[in-house]
Write a structure and sequence with these properties.
It is built from no helices and 12 strands. The protein has strands spanning about 10-15, 20-25, 30-40, 55, 65-70, 75, 80-85, 100, 110-115, 125-130, 140-145, 160-165. The strands form 3 sheets. A 4-stranded antiparallel beta sheet has the order 1-2-3-4, with no helix packed on it. The chain has a 4-stranded antiparallel beta sheet with strand order 5-6-7-8, with no helix packed on it. A 4-stranded antiparallel beta sheet has the order 9-10-11-12, with no helix packed on it. The termini are far apart.
Length: about 170
């Protein structure tokens, strides 16, 4: 039993068989995102981060996925960003823009809902952009991030595939 943690939100296996668990921890700062590393036999790996646990101070616990790239670096997919950690749990500032990819579809607030790791370490990321009142509708989007965290500009148009809500069957903008 590992005390003090919330539900397991996502799991990833490192090439050496260690298990990465995306979860949350509640402490004096409130609910925070956490990554826990377990041995292949399910025991806490105290050699990782701080006694087996990497927390993100001030980071909301709304992350949805953890992916392990072929080189053992971790991608953490949150509600609004994708970040990459080195195997030692430090932020990889060479990924994306200073360590993170932030979707920037014009017109509103962007949220990430889905992700999928491809065999080469690139990542498909999908979500929606919520257009503010008085428009009050959402459009879906999908992009592919290269292993470096840069948008693959050969994907879709300008690196994105957009799904305008008025182009989907049985939908309407209100």
């Amino acid at each position: 039993t590992i005390a003090g943690f919330g539900q397991a939100r996502s799991l990833a296996m490192q090439p050496d068989g260690k298990i990465m668990v995306l979860t949350s921890v509640t402490d004096s700062m409130g609910d925070q995102l956490a990554v826990v590393r377990l041995s292949g036999s399910g025991l806490l790996d105290s050699s990782y981060a701080m006694n087996g646990v990497r927390t993100f101070s001030g980071a909301p616990s709304q992350a949805s996925a953890v992916w392990c790239q072929p080189d053992s670096r971790l991608l953490i997919v949150g509600a609004t960003t994708v970040s990459r950690l080195h195997e030692d749990s430090s932020l990889d500032t060479t990924f994306g823009d200073g360590g993170a990819f932030l979707p920037s579809i014009p017109g509103g607030n962007n949220t990430i809902h889905a992700s999928y790791m491809l065999p080469d370490g690139s990542l498909l990321v999908g979500g929606h952009v919520a257009h503010p009142y008085p428009l009050s509708y959402s459009d879906g989007w999908l992009t592919r991030l290269m292993p470096s965290g840069d948008i693959d500009m050969t994907f879709g148009v300008g690196g994105f595939v957009l799904f305008p809500s008025d182009s989907l069957p049985n939908s309407s903008r209100t």
